[in-house]
Design goal:
By secondary structure, the protein is an alpha+beta fold. The chain folds into two domains: 130 residues, no CATH class; 50 residues. 38% of the residues lie in helices and 31% in strands. It is built from six helices and seven strands; from the N terminus they run αββαβββββαααα. A five-stranded mixed β-sheet has the order 2-3-4-5-6. A hairpin with a 6-residue loop joins strand 4 and strand 5.
Length: 200
């Protein structure tokens, strides 16, 4: 069975009024959207579909968790999902774009596919920063990615300068200084020429 069909509701035979449906979301849904950041997960989706003559009102509740890469230590991280949303399904012979809130279907369609809506709703429910709870990051990775303070960085730069100076003989240093002075003088002359042209 196609993944999309797993999250489809055949509404044509339903009587007007509310109807309840339940879906399980797992790895197969996230793999279908291979460009996404979600590696795995397990969510329960409860759908209440209210059928009317001109539209379907679909209320969706999603709970569970997904597995993503931790922004701090880059290890797998489990993030809870808790989402409530509403999708309106309207009918039109004219082709229209789905905008995240309203899905347009042709009147000849007999089922509504909620796969994209469910996936997007899960993604939107996730926090901007996806990290382990404090203290649960991989300590080895955290040591590798430790942020260097300004003081430590200044010390590293000073040591690098010292090593560079030690590896270049005194004669080489004086040549470098002369070259630098020559380049600065050339820049000053070039700058003066530009200023004179601008005055003209």
């Amino acid at each position: 069975m196609e993944v999309g069909k797993t999250y489809s509701i055949a509404y044509r035979g339903l009587k007007p009024g509310p109807h309840d449906f339940d879906f399980k979301v797992g790895r197969e849904l996230f793999e279908a959207f291979s460009a996404g950041d979600i590696k795995d997960g397990a969510c329960d989706v409860h759908v209440r579909l209210d059928r009317a003559e001109t539209q379907l009102v679909i209320d969706v509740r999603i709970t569970g968790h997904v597995v993503v890469e931790c922004d701090r230590c880059l290890e797998d991280c489990r993030i809870p999902v808790d989402y409530d949303g509403r999708l309106l399904v309207r009918f039109s012979d004219e082709e229209r774009e789905y905008d995240g809130d309203v899905l347009w279907l042709s009147p000849v369609e007999d089922e509504v596919d909620l796969m994209q809506y469910i996936y997007e709703s899960i993604v939107l429910s996730l926090p901007y920063q996806r990290v382990h709870p404090e203290g649960e990051c991989n300590p080895e990775m955290m040591r590798r990615f430790r942020i260097v303070s300004g003081e430590e960085f200044a010390g590293i730069e000073a040591r690098a300068r010292e090593q560079a100076e030690e590896s270049i003989p005194a004669e080489g240093l004086s040549k470098l200084a002369a070259l630098k002075a020559e380049m600065e003088a050339a820049e000053r002359v070039s700058g003066t020429g530009k200023e004179e042209k601008q005055r003209e």
